[in-house]
DNA sequence: TTACTTGCAAAGATTTTGCATCTGT
DNA sequence: ACAGATGCAAAATCTTTGCAAGTAA
């Protein structure tokens, strides 16, 4: 039988922090940020709630070259851009290319449900000579 | 000044293992596999050599949902397919969609160098009712 | 020889878990 | 009250590093 979720201040704060954060924070970054407004929050509980949010599909996780997983509130499908110089990850406002999934089905024996695209290069700030970090 | 690399049996074995492995192994999987033919290999050295191979661009790393980095020998650019049921990662024989990078440039202020696409769904084996694990 | 490599062990960093306690419903 | 949630600390995983010894060039 399925687990009955109940309201949790911690979980909502965690979600809000990820949701309102443009930079796709790591678990520890979320923890640092939340420590201020909820000093009692434990790391173990943070990870537990991140797992729940992932399972519920409210957030998604991804690794973008650093080896550490970064989280992203799921609003609608979108792509990502990763700066190879400073490592920042940003959302990409390009509409989903549904034709790509359709095209892919012609090349594969697998049952393809969808796709994600990650663009990489140098972000505008870095290109403008901004501080590398 | 740049480091002068020299031949290393270990490094080549590690590369070969990743190169000849269709399943995009994790570092520990490479280690397990190599333990047989080179019992003296140490984990620390494995990681060191993986870092070197990455730096040299001979392999690439990526996380595909499990949170653990998987490695892939770089031959030419290609996409990936990730089975959401059994977690296997396979190469995708679809030609690179260069137009996607071109289209993306119109949506972004960043300097876009390229892209990667990851398709997801259920692999042929799982779809055929194969054992889930 | 010189400088890169290696194995080993210790240390780091990140994530997961057991358990007693607390809390939403 | 009951079942899920929390904090804490210990443990498990995965990765990095220091160091003395080994080895390609």
Give the structure's gist in a few sentences.
Two copies of one chain form a homodimer. Chain A is of the alpha+beta class.
Task: Explain the overall architecture.
- The structure is a homodimer of 133-residue chains.
- With 133 residues, chain A is α+β, with helices and mostly antiparallel strands.
- Chain A has two domains: 1-73, Orthogonal Bundle (Arc Repressor Mutant, subunit A); 76-133, 2-Layer Sandwich (Dna Ligase, domain 1), CATH 3.30.1490.
- The first copy, chain A, has five helices and five strands.
- The first copy, chain A, has helices at 9-19, 27-37, 43-55, 98-105, 124-127; strands at residues 59-63, 69-73, 79-83, 89-92, 111-122.
- Chain A has a three-stranded mixed beta sheet. Chain A has a two-stranded antiparallel ribbon with strand order 1-2.
- In chain A, helix 1 (9-19) packs across helix 2 and helix 1 crosses helix 3.
- The mean pLDDT of chain A is 88.
- Chain A binds chain B through residues 61-63, 67, 69, 79, 81, 83-84, 90, 92-94, 97, 100-101, 103-104, 107-124, 127, and chain B through 61-63, 67, 69, 79, 81, 83-84, 90, 92-94, 97, 100-101, 103-104, 107-124, 127.
- Strand 5 (111-122) of chain A pairs antiparallel with strand 5 of chain B.
- The structure holds a DNA duplex (25 and 25 nucleotides).
């Amino acid at each position: 039988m399925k687990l009955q979720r109940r309201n949790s201040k911690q979980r909502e704060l965690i979600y809000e922090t990820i949701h309102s954060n443009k930079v796709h924070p790591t678990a520890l970054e979320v923890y640092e940020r939340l420590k201020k407004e909820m000093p009692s929050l434990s790391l173990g509980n943070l990870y537990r709630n991140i797992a729940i949010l992932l399972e519920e599909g409210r957030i998604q996780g991804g690794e973008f070259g650093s080896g550490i997983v970064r989280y992203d509130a799921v609003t609608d499908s979108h792509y990502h851009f990763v700066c190879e110089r400073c490592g920042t990850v940003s959302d990409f406002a390009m509409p989903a290319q549904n034709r790509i999934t359709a095209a892919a089905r012609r090349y594969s024996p697998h049952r393809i449900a969808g796709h994600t695209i990650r663009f990489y290069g140098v972000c505008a700030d870095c290109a403008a000579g901004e501080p590398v970090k």
